[in-house]
Amino acid sequence: MSNTPPLPRWADLILLPVINLFVALAICGVIIAVIGENPFQAFGVMIKGAFIYPESLGYTLYYTTNFIFTGLAVATAFHAMMFNIGGEGQAYVGGLGAAFAAFLVGPFAPWFITLPLCILGAAAFGAFWAMVPGYLQAKRGSHIVITTIMFNFLAASLMVWLLAGPMMLQGQQSPQTAIFDTSAHLPKMSEIFAIFGVKIAKSPLNISFLLAIVALGIFYVLIWKTRLGYEIRTVGKNPEAAHYAGINVARTIIIAMAISGAFAGLMATNEVLGVHNRVILNFTAGYGFTGIAVALMGRNHPIGIFLASLLFGVLYQGGAELDFEFKSITREMVLLIQGMIILFSGALAYMFNPPLARFLVRIGLVKGVQDA
Amino acid sequence: MLDFLLQLLLALDATLRLATPLILCAMAGIFAERSGIVDISLEGKLLTGAFVAAAVAAITGSAWLGLFAAIGASVFMSLIHGFACITHKGDQVVSGVAINILASGMTVIAGIALFAKGGQTPHLPNESRFRAIEFYGVETLNNVPVIGTIYRELISGHSLLVYLALVLVPICAFVMYKSRFGLRLRAVGELPEAVDSAGISVTWLRYRALIVGGALCGIAGAYLSISHGANFVREMSAGKGYIALAAVIFGNWRPYKALFACLLFGFLEAGTSRLQGVDLPLIGEIPIQLMLAVPYIVTVLLLAGFIGRPTAPAAIGQPYNK
């Protein structure tokens, strides 16, 4: 492939991801057609479900919130060339952190003390659950992918044990904790708007959406504007060079993983503090894995992560709509689309690179390289 | 005493049944990983195999057709993995994640489209399944103490696929260590440049390793849905592919050691149902979640070098660039 001219920045950042997304959606469309439904109608229903109804935008943004957090988690680790598959487990354990703060402080303190402590608890527990694999990778030579996978299962075992045992609400059957005191409830957006006299439709969308937007900003500053971010990116690009430049590689990896886990843990603020107001079984529902698709599509950049999160918010909310409108296609369609997106924007990200580059040269948008 | 022996035998019997899908997937994982390809997509291939086996057996009524279709579908998933990370040099972990997610979405979608039962497949009659095989002489030996019981409970009375899994382990070991293909396969996972400079195609070797792995996962999937179970249910693989991966690591990427790991993990799983709520002397009640988590804990400790030191294939995870 030495005769492939490099893609211009705009094509690499916008055109190629759009092509990959389009191919992923096209294959899903073919599968829908094979099942016997009209793919355009199906995608239409999804778009409608995600935007048109009064409450649908709220639901879409509520899902988006989860994906921003888990996407940031995967992206932070990616910058250090660590593949954190453990977002699911870190978010799950993050919920535990939020619950501890809510139960220990909630009954005695007002909201402006309880809520920050709950949010910190979520971030801290998530950070811890990622830091251990980070430490094992940096100091003991484990493999981060395998360790974080195992930590997902360990988190699931731990949470089942806690929710069905010591932390289970007395006198009921389903494994979940008691409801938190109101001081640990994150306000819903509809409630906040109501204070200002604006009436919007009720949805699970809560203030953690704004927290997610702030997290995007923090991520940008951290990765590109701080010394730590520079170290993280250097370690990610070339650990040997980083070492010779005097960067403590092991320490940087551990810190990067901790920050990554903290972002994942913050997902619990949306689900646990904002929506359920308690910890329920499997509240993470695979959002941690979606974070992988989000980070890959968003190219580990805050703007890209926001757009990819929004796309998945649309898919999840619109996908739920499929259940009502069709008999033979359901919300699992979203899993299929998600898998295709990870395949085409991740594993096959550069499959279309050479043909696209040659095409751009032929239509004269890009100058070809003379001597290959 | 005799009661204890019977209990132990029943536990070992359950161990064998629970370990079978792990053994098959672990052998698949060994082939892929010894050729230098990280295979976290065992889970997805297992799930695909389970669904296709149950669906085809339900439609055709033939367990054998179900088995072969499962092998075909699982190999197809392997080929996607190969296309992404051998042909296009994509990230092997990302590709594996994609396949796992595709499998969990696709099995449910296809299940609903074909059978409209919320993602399940119809309950299979016994003749469309691989049923327990009664060995010759169970009746005659029944009166012999100990040996008769062992023969009846542990050795006889499993499905064909259980015996197949056990027979495949020495075959895999033989192929891996005594055949030319195996030698080259191990070489390509350690130093692909050497294999390439000997004029052997790295690409084709790795594809073949993945195809073998896909076939093994297909058999494992068929075992789950048309032998051990009688239909497919959503997320039927339930993390078994990952436990198999843990067994590969625990077995240091070697067939017999991995077999041992699978049997150990199977034994733990078999033990959970027997020990649930039982107050053991001295120890007290063991939480079943803790027992189920042992494979993961062991793998983490092992990879961190706290118990022994695993030696992964040297070239694992790296696409080969000429």
UniProtKB/TrEMBL annotation, chain A:
Subcellular location: Cell membrane
Top-level division of the source organism's lineage: Bacteria
CDD domains cross-referenced by the UniProt entry: TM_PBP1_transp_TpRbsC_like
Transmembrane recorded as keyword: yes
Keyword Transcription regulation: no
Membrane-spanning segments: 14-36, 57-83, 89-105, 112-132, 144-164, 205-224, 244-267, 279-297, 303-322, 334-352
UniProt topology in membrane: Multi-pass membrane protein
Position of the signal peptide: none
Keywords: Cell membrane, Membrane, Transmembrane, Transmembrane helix
Stored PANTHER family: ABC TRANSPORTER, PERMEASE PROTEIN, GUANOSINE ABC TRANSPORTER PERMEASE PROTEIN NUPP
Identification of the protein by name: ABC transporter permease
Organism annotation: Amylibacter marinus
TrEMBL record, chain B:
Transmembrane segments: 51-81, 93-116, 160-177, 207-226, 288-308
Subcellular location: Cell membrane
Membrane topology (UniProt): Multi-pass membrane protein
Pfam families membership: BPD_transp_2 (PF02653)
InterPro entries on file: ABC_transp_permease
Species name: Amylibacter marinus
Keywords of the record: Cell membrane, Membrane, Transmembrane, Transmembrane helix
Domain of life: Bacteria
Residue ranges the record marks as coiled coil: none
Protein name: ABC transporter permease
